[in-house]
Amino acid sequence: MVKAIDRYVHSLSKHVNLESEEMASFQDEIRSHLAESVNALRLEGYSEKESVAIALRRFGEESNLNAELRREYRFHRSFKKWMLAVSVLFLALSVFFVYESRALEERGLVNLDYMNNDFDKVEDLMGKTNSVPYEVLKAYVERHEGVVRYVLLTQKKRAVPIAEYAYPIEHEPYDPQDVYYLPQRIETEVTGIQWYANIYYNNSAIYPPQVHAVYVTGVVCFALYWILFGLWNVLNAHRRGSLNVFWVVCFFSLNVVAYLLYKAVELIRIGRFRAAV
């Protein structure tokens, strides 16, 4: 039976002008399709010889199929290649966008730590002098211009506020939804006296709005990759005549794992078929 199918496939392929890789795939798909048909006919009670003859007759005459098969196969092959290429492109884009969003977030956290640690100079002077070092505070705000809106300093004696200072004294109104503050407690050398500093900063400067947008773009690209790769697997299984609901569910739920599983099952099925004949 195998020899008869091979002769038929070889005869069918003689006038199909394809590259070696495409030709091998083309012949494998025809063999797989014919083998499925022969097995089905054998289960219906036909002999091996009758099954092969009927399967070949149903598949069609070579002379009538060559041109049509060449056009159809090339179209599907090209379509699947583009679908696979686009799906891989979306996968690469998803990795890039997710990585970029994490990088932007990480840079924001680094800037936040720098802003927080840089305030140590102000803390040290206030702890030693129990006064506001205006020049140092001014330099701190200027170093973080665009991020720090202002610094509010509250002096307390035994937890009771006794004085309050702000720098800059005059600051523009801000959106409470966007401005956050870092609380700092400053111990002084004077017994019972503490300073409390609230560093008000623009949250959008630390965590730019585009971080979320970039991350969502990455997720969308990954979803598109998942769908396209699932469709690519469905088309492959359909052309091989082995598509069913189980494989459709697997392709769209397990993705690459389902593809590897399908390839393994196909190899086992073909091996058993060849062993049986």
How would you sum up this structure, described in words?
- With 277 residues, this protein is α+β, with helices and mostly antiparallel strands.
- The protein has a domain of 93 residues: Ribosomal protein S3 C-terminal domain.
- It has ten helices and four strands, in the order ααααααββββαααα.
- Strand 1 and strand 2 form a beta hairpin.
- Helix 2 packs across helix 3.
- The mean pLDDT is 82.
Topology, number of strands: 4
**Strand fraction band?**
5-15%
Low-confidence stretches: none
Helix and strand pattern: HHHHHHEEEEHHHH
- Fold-level CATH name of the domain at 114-206: Ribosomal protein S3 C-terminal domain
The name of the CATH architecture of the domain at 114-206 is 2-Layer Sandwich
Average pLDDT reading = 82
CA radius of gyration is: 36 Å
CATH hierarchy, class of the domain at 114-206: Alpha Beta
- N→C terminal distance: 7 Å
Largest sheet, spatial ordering of strands? 2-1-4-3
Helix count equals 10
Helix content: 55-70%
What's the main sheet like?
4 strands, antiparallel
Q: Characterize the overall form.
A: rod-shaped
Helix vs. strand class: alpha+beta
